[in-house]
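Why does residue order matter? Because the sequence determines the fold. Keep that principle in mind as you read this record.
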Amino acid sequence: MTLKFKIEYLSAIRKRYYQSTKTEKTIILNELCSVAGYNRKYAIRILAIKHHEGKKLSGRTKTYSERSIKHLKRMWVIMGEICSKKMVQALKTWLKYYEDDDCDDDIRDELMSMSHASIDRYLRAYKASLGRKKRTGTRPGKMFKNVIPLKSFDKNIDRPGHIEADTVAHCGDSLSGKFAWSLTFTDVYSGWTENRVTYGKDSDEVLSAIMDIKFKLPFPIITFNTDNGTEFLNRNLYLYFSDKKEIEFTRSRPYKKNDNAHVEQKNWTHVRESFGYERFDKTEQVEMMNVIYKLYLNNLYNFFVPQFKLIEKVRIGSKIVKKYDKPKTPYQRLLECEFLTMGQKEELRRKYKTG
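Structure:
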């Protein structure tokens, strides 16, 4: 049987096949398989060609409208490009302050009903369009490695005050000359983070920023851990913390970023996402960046952006299984902490209400 004859034969029986009863369809299928030599399942498929045109295709019905996806992308950018599980929790608060004439109650209901998996699915292509660069200006400080102890890894962190610190260079494409550096403090227990900007990373500049952050923290510092950069391992900082007997000054192992993991992840979310990779080498820019950190970004991330916290890590064979608690803001974790006084918590509530 030639191909041309098969095509003509199929065209002749296709309409009659779908207008027949089940018994008649069986007879037609048996005849087609016998004449053309087709497998039965293949014969059913080719008879279905063009039959479903104009009809609803199979698959899931779209749950969320294009308008809600548009606002989801906008909210994700406004919220600092946080992960989907954090976003599910944060939307409960952020939607109260989200103002857009196109975002009516139906859209808000759709956004509130989205699961973290749906958010990931709708944002996947949008996230892929964004890129990331890597650059570092850290130089090892060798002189004080023998006197500043390594960080202890057997501590059970059950209260705020255990600080990890790091710096980020705003140097653009060149590390030459003097430019802005972001200094980041992160509390291991609560995730509370404070940032300041210094013009260069001289020990005097860094120490001044450390003292400013220290007096603005809502809790006292117990331990202060840094990497091995010269901005931290120097005479000025060593003498300063030697006088502060209540603060333990420690350092991480060289080339082991996970020793300072809590603050390392903030270098992206709290610094790069806000200021990018551009070069800032004017004193006026440093002043403006400090204003942005102090009045806006620090309050935003500490009071309104939820964070995960690791509660268990178990090795099963060759895999490590991690379990996290429900995402909460650093502010919420501090209010739940039994080691903060009522006065400290009231001051936090006052700052939350006044912004």
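The radius of gyration is 30 Å.
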